[in-house]
Amino acid sequence: MIPYEHVCFIIMPFGKKTVGPKLIDFDAIYSGIFEPAVSRVQLPEGGHLEARRTDMDFFSGSIDLEMFHYLEYSRIALADTSGLNPNVFYELGARHRARASGTIIFHQAENPIPFDIAQIKAFPYEYEPEYHARQSRELITKVLSESLTENRLDSPIRIALAAQQSLATAEQRDIESRLRRAENFLRMADWNAAIQEFRGASQAYPLNPLIRMRLGLLLRDRDNWREALTQFEAAISLAENYSEAWREKGVAENKLASNDELIGDPAPGENALRRALVLNPNDFDALASLGGILKRAGRLSPALQAYRDSTELSNGHPYPLLNSIKMQAYLEQRLDLNQATKRLLGRAEHALRTQIAQTPPYNAPWCFFDLAELVLFQQKQAEFMELAKQGLSYCSADWQPRTWLTSLKFLRPAARSLPGLEDGIRIVSEYLSS
Q1: What's this model's pTM, rounded to 2 decimal places?
Q2: Is residue 125 part of a domain?
Q3: What is the CA radius of gyration of the chain?
């Protein structure tokens, strides 16, 4: 009898697979990263978690049947979405339908997250060199340990279905049709049509927090912060422990605040972000957003610490990493990068260049703006200017270049260390005034 209460089922590709330009040995990742990280996780009732992967077990029956047993009964499932493997996504969907909690997503840092699961927290990892592999093992052990302790709801399917039970069949078919159309519009980048479909679905089905969240994110990205905030608050009223909705509520509240309100203590949105972090201490996006709120409130030292904590928790995600560098440069009035930071920048550069190489670029215009800042820190003035222009060409709303212009202006105290900074500020300003 398999002790499923002790099992962490690993959902990942098998063998060697080509991902982008690289040939990756996923079996080596299982044995060198996932298995040792899982084996160090202590169960609350005693004992340790055990990593299992169907091709590593020896069964007398069907491997597919055993796979479904693992998906249904394992206490924890760890999914590696690197390479966008169809089998992985099939098993991840089956797991999300089977279990309300205990499913954790990881991905190699340079590989993008598809929009379909972008609202689910995914943690980046790296398997080489050994220094990064050791950090990844530590991160995986920490995340799994906290998941066992908190047992938070993490299945978007179960979140949606929990609010759907009272729907009549005809109503359900109508809503499902609207959601399918919305997803198709998103894939075609027809944002306005997608928003209208989500609006229709939320009006027909007002008790679904996931629809409210998706609509809020789309409205946020179209610079409609006030209506986005309304949707995030509606999601929280339907699911009070929805940590991602609390995070987005905090960001929207701060975005909508007047200049006079920003310097308050607590600052607008601060309480909502701190609530998100109580619900999910591993949400590095919430930590980084808290850093931004504290920066705008003039509390620069705690802002720097929030960015650093987010950088550590995310294993060097570009957003908190770049903001921690900018904050330190502002405080010291010069750019001074140590070797550890340079290593993190090298990793971030690889991830951002991979995002830009996607068709279309992943997370544009921010992948261009983030890489532009990174090469600015490396004194690559010509490439900084070219990336800035490319990023501006992908802007779909004025708040995007305005936000980046504010970020660049924040670096002015360290301008002597950053040749090209003023030229970048000039071209963004000219874009906004044109």
Answers
A1: 0.65
A2: yes
A3: 22
